[in-house]
Amino acid sequence: MIHALRRPVFGLLFLLALPAAAQEPFGAVAGRALDEAGAPVPLSLVRLEPAGGGEERSVLSDEAGAFRFDSVAPGEYRLRLERIGYTAEPTPPFRVDAGRTVEQALRAVLRPVQLAGISANPNACYTAARLADAPDLEALWREAQKGAETRRGFQRRYAFRYDLRIRGVGHVRLFRDQQVRQDTTLYSHPDSVRARREGYGRQTSKSIAIRIPDELDLLEEDFLTT
Fold first, then answer.
1. Residue/partner pairs of 139-144 with CB below 8 Å, 24 or more apart
2. Distance (Å, rounded) from C-alpha 163 to C-alpha 187?
């Protein structure tokens, strides 16, 4: 009887242990963004970069410089602090393990970015492959991207909803004038319109809707491909 009971109990313990391990396949990274003097750097971009390359993530530090990344896959990472008009070196690589939170004090030496004058040339087109050939233009582009991503971070943190109501008369050639009535509830969204997927215009039998691209669209990396 003793041997008969041991196997079910061991099997039950093994099955109970599996969900606990499966519940925490990720880790987390938390800390504070500090300048060279140890003062907090509020409302700045903090990037989490895989040390071996790959997709990075970014969050906005709060008023006290605190930041946090959840659901981080185990591996080697670096942190980088970015502010508009400044540049900083990344931290040394550190390890993130499943089920653990890594505390990191991100102390950055901020160096001012010097932007030179830009000469417009109507016959030149710099795609992503050629942007490195124009370092002054590339520096300006990267600083503008920081501003767009900072705005995206604010929109993630302070999401809002607004109601759009349109009333008027629409005139289309060969058709009589029509009353235009449109009520739409919109939500702030931090991501680009991404024209390659949705487009900026949509036409139906009764209306034409146009979305004007903003800086989040124009400063996307994909915008430089052509």
1. 139/113, 139/115, 140/115, 141/219, 143/84, 143/85, 143/113, 143/115, 144/215, 144/219
2. 9
Q: Which residues of 33-60 are buried (b: 16+ CB within 10 A; e: fewer)?
A: bbbeeeeebeebbbbbbbeeeeeeebbb
Give me the residue label for tokens 């800390």: 31
- Find the distance separating the first CA and the last CA of the chain, reported in whole Å: 76
Q: Which parts of 139-177 are beta strand (E)?
A: 161-170
DSSP annotation of 19 reads: H
pTM to 2 decimal places: 0.62
Taking CA 218 as the corner, what is the angle to CA 192 and CA 224, rounded to the nearest 5 degrees?
110
Non-local (6+) Cβ contacts of 136 within 8 A are: 115, 116, 117, 118
pLDDT single digits (tens) 167-208: 777 766 666 777 777 787 777 766 654 544 566 677 777 677
Backbone angles phi, psi at 196, to 5 degrees: -65, -20
